[in-house]
């Protein structure tokens, strides 16, 4: 999956290489219907199973969110939140957190290592571990706070959307495990249709007038989408950003400034050569040697010579040395 | 080695060692830093044994650079304080750039251009250290928020850019002004060079020598070993 031979790569981090344009796959999407989720964590377990990671046993912090955060060996995490609605009722909001597979991925934009992050034509954003140098720039680029730095092997990790499974026509492991149909996988177009149907149902029959699909345009849309009962305030779902976009700081850092800075440094070097050619070396001439020698030669003068007269302001001619 | 007669001691061995440690660190930092800076320059990582090694060594070399340069800052401090005459030199900058030094006011131990390099590096390296530590995720990830790291990496990047421009200025000046390199290799420079480029300093030292006091003038009764 790491080479371009699959012809499926459309974007490569830190590279001006033209990725193969031969094949355009169907864009895929994972749909997370938060309104159907019961928080059983089957998906979380399936992710551990398939990717074969085993985070250390943690401790109980008074919530169902366990472990407490994503990590290099926790690609997806059920986040539990309690929210008091306008009627004063408690709503239990459970959100499956993980990589959103942005169409315009901030991690890929920030990454300095060629080929450490790629985007496939089906929309999946994948970390290619052999090219990762572990600088942590992807963490700074991501608008969703997803990539995690591994203290074990000093590389960054996140959900792969089971790119290995998907490339063989299988659905991601989490989808396979979900018992309620809260997780669905298919083409992005199909998933959007399904989601819109569900949103209509939630608004009409279920009494959630603000229900909606979360497919944020600020990052060009995502390949992981949520159906939310309260799409007007995504923040209540464990700080899901309302209008995510790549930080302007990252845009500046990775924008036109870089090639301009490289050009400026190059010009400074070229300019030095031009200066050398125009003015020639600044060399000590015999006059300096003689005058310098006289200045230090105490015996010939007895005293330090007085300051030489100020040279005429514009003349190119060297001032005459006072004759003894 | 003792400076031969007809020369002036400019840098004793420790200053030269200090300078070259700083210089080597700086070059290595520019190389590994530029590798992360822009994809065209990523190939520079081969000098460090690959991207992972370049990433891992860069901050450590930065710490060595900071310590080494801090020592230089302290030792050269006195000579780099601004002086009233510096303004007159700056007004003659055009003559400086075209090498017509006979039209430029006399200069002491350092000219204002050299003082600029000294101070610019002092500030830039401090900024690079602070921002570099903020983005040194391996040790300091938990010390700052992601937003703060974004600010820090942008500032580090821009400060590095200016540091490189100052470095180009510094290296080019040392090459263009012929006879300068030996100051940092052998430690002494011919009297003619000092007369041309640092006449005020030469006069001060010659005066000391004339009074029989320790000076930087080689061959004088007492050669001062502390000039930095
Ligand atoms: C003084 C101590 C310094 C520290 C602690 C430091 C630390 C860092 C760190 C942690 C990074 C991220 C990559 C990595 O993990 O290796 C980095 C990037 C970088 N550093 Fe430094 N650094 C220092 C000094 C310098 C100096 C003196 C230069 C050169 C003038 C420099 C140039 C760069 C550049 C160009 C980048 C890439 C920035 C970008 O991606 O836009 N650094 N530095
Ligand atoms: S940690 Fe790895 S994947 Fe993330 S930006 Fe750095 S090189 Fe790229």
Structural write-up:
The complex is a heterodimer of chains A (324) and B (228). Chain A is an alpha+beta fold and 324 residues long. Chain A has one domain (6-232, 263-316): Alpha-Beta Plaits (2-Layer Sandwich), CATH 3.30.70.20. Chain A contains 10 helices and 11 strands. Chain A has helices spanning 42-51, 106-110, 137-141, 163-167, 173-177, 188-204, 248-253, 257-279, 286-296, 298-301, and strands at residues 9-12, 28-33, 77-84, 90-97, 117-120, 125-127, 148-149, 156-157, 183-187, 212-214, 224-228. In chain A, the strands form 4 sheets. Chain A has a 4-stranded mixed sheet. In chain A, strands 1-5-6 form a 3-stranded antiparallel sheet, with no helix packed on it. In chain A, a hairpin with a 6-residue loop joins strand 7 (148-149) and strand 8 (156-157). Residues 299-307 of chain A have low confidence and may be disordered. With 228 residues, chain B is mostly helical. Helices cover 64% and strands 3% of the residues of chain B. Chain B has helices at 13-37, 51-76, 85-91, 93-98, 112-134, 137-140, 146-176, 181-185, 191-197, 199-210; strands at 7-9, 188-190. Chain B has a two-stranded antiparallel sheet with strand order 1-2. In chain B, helix 1 (13-37) packs antiparallel against helix 2 (51-76), helix 2 crosses helix 5 (112-134) and helix 9 (191-197) crosses helix 10 (199-210). The longest helix of chain B is centred in the last third of the chain and has 31 residues, at 146-176. Chain B is elongated. The two termini of chain B are 16 Å apart. The chains are: A alpha+beta (324), B mainly alpha (228). At the A-B interface, helix 3, helix 7, helix 8 and helix 9 of A face helix 1, helix 2, helix 7, helix 9 and helix 10 of B. The structure holds protoporphyrin IX containing FE and iron/sulfur cluster. Residues 13, 110-111, 113, 116-117, 127, 132-138, 147, 155-156 of chain A line the site of iron/sulfur cluster. Protoporphyrin IX containing FE (HEM) binds at residues 29-30, 33-34, 36-37, 55, 58-59, 62-63, 65-66, 125, 128-129, 132-133, 135-136, 156-157, 160, 163-164 of chain B.
